[in-house]
Amino acid sequence: MADPKIGKDVSNGVEGDHADLKDQVYLEETFYILSKKNSVFRVRLTSKGLSLTKETDGNSKEQTILLRDIIGGKCMRSKRRRPGAGSCVCSSLVGHQQLKVVDENSGDLDENDISAYLYIYAYILKRSRRTLKRERTTITLRFRSFDKYEDNNREAQKWRSTIKCLIAGQSITYAPPANDKKLLILLNPKSGPGKARELFQSKVAPILQEAEVPYDLHVTKYANYAREFVRTRNVYNWRGIVAVGGDGVLFEILNGMFERLDWQPALAEVPLAIMPCGSGNGLARSICHLYNEPYINQNLTGLTMALARGKTAPMDVVRVETKSKIMFSFLSIGWGLLSDIDIESERLRAIGGQRFTLWALARLVGLRKYKGVVSYAKIKDVGNLPKPKQPLTLSHSVSQDGALDSPDAEAFIDCDENSDVFTNAMNGKHQRVDSWYSVNSRRSAFYSTRGSEYHSVTSGGSEMRSPVHTCMHGPASHLPSLMSQLPSHWVHEEGEFVMVHISYQSYIGEDFLFAPRSQLSDGVMWMLIIKAGIPRSQLFSFFMGISQGTHAEVNNEYIKMVPVSAFRIVPEGPHGYLTVDGELMEYGPIQGEIFPNIVNLLVPDTK
Question: What class is the 332-390+471-596 domain?
Answer without folding.
Answer: mainly beta
